[in-house]
Amino acid sequence: MTVTHTYDAVIVGAGGAGLRAAIEASDRVRTAVISKLYPTRSHTGTAQGGVCAALSNVEEDYPEWHAFDTVKGGDYLVDQPAAELMCEEAVHAIYELEHWGLPFNRTPDGKIDQRRFGGHTRNHGEAPVRRACYAADRTGHMILQTLYQQCVKRSVRFFNEFYVLDLLMADGRAAGVVAYELATGELHVFRAKSVLFATGGFGRMFKVSSNAHTLTGDGPAVVWRRGIPLEDMEFFQFHPTGVYRMGILLSEAVRGEGGILLNGELERFMERYAPTVKDLAPRDLVSRAIYQEIKEGRGAGPKRDAVWLDVRHLPREIIEEKLPDVTEFARVYLSVEPTTELVPIQPTAHYAMGGIPTDVDGRVVLGAEETPVLGLYAAGECACVSVHGANRLGTNSLLDIVVFGRRGGKHATGYASQADLAEPPERPEGFAQDMVSALLDRREGTNAADIRAQLQESMFDLAFVVRTEPGLKKMQDLLADLRERFARVRVQDTGRMFNTELMEAVELGFLLDNAAALVGSALARDESRGAHFREDHPLRDDEHWLKHSLAYRLEDGSVRMEYKDVKLGPYVPMERKY
Amino acid sequence: MASPPETPGAVLESSDRPRADKAGLVTLTLKIRRYNPELRGDESWWDEFTIEADPNDRLLDALHHVKWYQDGTLALRRSCAHGICGSDALMINGRNRLACKVLVKDVQPKVTVEPIRGLPVLKDLYVDMEPFFDGYRSILPYLVSDEAEPEAERLQSPEERHRFDDTTKCILCACCTTSCPIFWGDAGYVGPAAIVNAHRFIHDSRDGAADERLKILSDKTGVFRCRTTFNCTEACPRGIEVTKAIQDVKRLILLDRF
Fold first, then answer.
1. Selection from B97, B31, B82 nearest residue B231 by Cα
2. Are B156 and A38 within 8 A, CB to CB?
3. ipTM of this complex
4. Substitution target from B13, B66, B82 for chain A, most A beta carbons within 10 A
5. What Cα–Cα distance (Å) separates residue A179 from each residue in A3, A202, B99?
6. A43 and B6 in contact by Cβ < 8 A?
7. Chain A residues whose beta carbon lies within 8 Å of the beta carbon of residue B85
8. Which stretches within A100-211 are classed as H helix?
9. Helix or strand (DSSP H, E) at A64
10. Could you give the C-alpha distances from A515 to A8, A202, A335, A557, in angstroms and in order?
């Protein structure tokens, strides 16, 4: 049986962007937040190091310097007006979080303390600047808790452990979503005037990832299947300092507080790659430097496929007070004591710069002319504004979710308060019902876990820090094969209650779609820019490629590419040196 | 009613996890408390699974291996897999732990896994979290301030900030609350996690609702149900001194009112 609900605004996802949008919407229109997790389980909570804003609390700083760093860090693929707006609004966004109770670390005079972070500099690259506001190495945890607390205060209506499987459209407008209730196996139709996706990333397509098991690109896949393109999917950030083998994030704040990287010969190799900012170079540069050191035989560890993170020289109170969680990760997962031992690390799949194309008000936009889809919104990691361009600077993701969560929520609310409810298509749950039934009704078939493992290992081998045309072509062929096998997946659990095996299979289907968009976009872009590094085309090519990719899904799951211009501004593309 | 369980993995094309390197693996037996009202009504039972695991893997990885390659019906919550999201609180060898913070080498050759206690079990390791969050919501878990907001941040000294640092670490995993014998016996008790979150705001120099929270917690469902067994402190995966926070709230109520 299908249950039908009617709301003004529906928000899909309850991480930072979804909760911030919900705060905006819930006071003004009838709002539902649909999340496949309890809100406090969302991955925003694992962000560690900080959230940047030019508060000038500890040294001179300006939003304009922040915007420059963001554009340069993004290797000039950033839409500059969007970055300028984000960096301007950052200051108020931080004060707002503080007013809501976020327990930031403080300076001796009681202001919000700030620290250094990769790629954030004073006066257009002169030296690292203290711009990151933080709460120990738990800044994301504090943001998620604070936003959830504000939602509790406002009695926001949550549908927890509901998986959104489909977007409903009517005459080119959003009409709602269809969700699967994990507890009962029932489908729910949520009719709404505006729908905002805030479902986070899709790092689980890679074997080594900092991402939660649940980060499977549900939002991007759901809208992609309804004809919406995905933007700049080839730009996926590989964070340099993941726990060796496991990929758990060790914050860039470790280097912000003075930690350094050493190769197998105990050389501080970043001095060679980025003489000015050294270990605090942006993440794409550091990850490639690590790859290069390993490739040239200077890796660390028994297999020489890691490098060391060294904090032994830092004062113990800095480690205990400002980096307590990452210190514990090393102790728990590596049995390493960071105060006296070197920590083995390797790059880990971390963050999607690309996603659902939106404007600065969170409106999903189509094509090169950026036509808004009425009533459809996206914010946070699943969206591409684009403020991160080809490589996101550390801390700018937490900023993105509060700035564009608010803007998207505000516009979605305004739209919902004047629009009428679109009539959903006949049998609105049909598409989702078929998706679920196909998996449940198949009497024999293949195991989803094998397909997932092969996807993750192959993407790690062929579409990670360094890419080549033959590698990407191989991956594209493999994806076609995996899709074909996925069509024969069956689940053992045919029950209706808490059938997580069924939902994991559905999530695998979403991951395969996200991977197809990523690989198709990466194969087409024969240049290197930001996080997308093509060994066969190692230079940036502004003449041909200063443009955003738009990947469309074809019937058979393969990809068709279109492009749109980057919105330039005051910063002329120049060679990126640090 | 669903059909009875078939031989796990019987019709799957492949059921062995691809492993480049079998060397160094250890054998782990997982004894898991099962419950599935669709299959067996109100009865709960034990299942045992034996797998090969890397000793440095997490217990969560081992549970995944069972679910993905032996019995897909096994149901458990998890997300981040590194001790931050708080989804996979389980009773592991009789103690409340996050499955992603326990390593195989620390529990092999055999480990017992059960749902956390005191909350209704829904299926296998899934419990109903609503009563837990009801307790959390009852203590006004948000900053309350009547003062006009300044244009910039409110000032707070590092010392003032430090006073409530420990209790800001709570991830609402419910390890503490569901280790408490008082909570097992009386679900009306708000439980340690709710008190921890009250403590976080009571000691925040920016907050103005301490009296209101202390009044809520002085009620018969509040802090005085605590019998100081320290189970909560022992169970907290974030290392919060839970019992100390509860004692602190008790003391504030006593100083204030009696």
1. B97
2. no
3. 0.96
4. B82
5. 10, 19, 28
6. no
7. 37, 40-43, 45-46, 212
8. 139-153
9. helix A63-73
10. 33, 9, 34, 11
